User: Which sequence fits this backbone?
């Protein structure tokens, strides 16, 4: 029965017309299930029940596939809340972007890599940033102050921050690193900070500096600082 069900599912996928949106949605689902590194055109074609060449009618190559996936994810960010002040509108939208990234943990690395590789952001990212600029302008920001705001907000506008250190759980220890007591003797202030700061063990993103509380702390600090610069 299981084999019959798989065959019927494959027939159904084959008969469903292939479209760019269907290709991108399936690619996002595969990345969610196995990580973006495991995503390939061959696996995607297999998931959709088509030959790999059929995909190239909708995405020309792997990078175009990744760009399209980014646009799908940015489309999940809530629209701006109407009838509220600029700070609330920006905060709510940034936190919506963060929830999107928490649903797709692989996405921040792809967004960062593709935005560096491209001459300009993808269309959905451009539309999102244009909308955010509009919120600042409607809130009384001059063009010059918006320019500074976009720089200081940086990747936080899309729900993630670029950390100085990667202290995510599960990392393999550096075999060449000195023992902890020697590290503490060499770098006493780092050791003091590392031992004193307790991160939320129940955080949705695990222990480390990029948990929800610290993300919102930095976001609110930035928004409060920008508010002080308004006339």
Assistant:
């Amino acid at each position: 029965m299981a084999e019959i069900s798989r065959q019927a599912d494959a027939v159904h996928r084959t008969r469903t017309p292939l479209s760019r949106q269907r290709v991108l949605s399936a690619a996002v689902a595969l990345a969610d299930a196995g990580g973006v590194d495991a995503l390939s055109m061959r696996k995607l074609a297999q998931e959709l029940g088509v030959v790999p060449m059929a995909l190239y009618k909708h995405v020309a190559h792997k990078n175009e596939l990744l760009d399209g996936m980014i646009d799908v994810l940015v489309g999940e960010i809530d629209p701006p809340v109407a009838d509220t002040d600029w700070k609330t509108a920006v905060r709510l939208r940034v936190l919506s972007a963060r929830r999107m990234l928490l649903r797709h943990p692989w996405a921040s690395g792809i967004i960062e890599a593709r935005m560096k590789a491209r001459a300009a952001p993808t269309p959905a990212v451009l539309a999102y940033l244009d909308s955010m600029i509009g919120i600042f302008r409607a809130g009384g920001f001059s063009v010059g102050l918006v320019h500074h705001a976009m720089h200081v907000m940086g990747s936080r506008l899309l729900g993630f921050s670029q950390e100085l250190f990667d202290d995510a759980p599960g990392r393999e220890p550096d075999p060449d690193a000195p023992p902890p007591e020697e590290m503490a003797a060499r770098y006493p202030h780092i050791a003091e900070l590392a031992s004193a700061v307790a991160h939320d063990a129940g955080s949705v993103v695990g222990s480390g500096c990029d948990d929800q509380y610290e993300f919102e702390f930095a976001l609110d600090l930035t928004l409060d600082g920008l508010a002080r610069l308004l006339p």
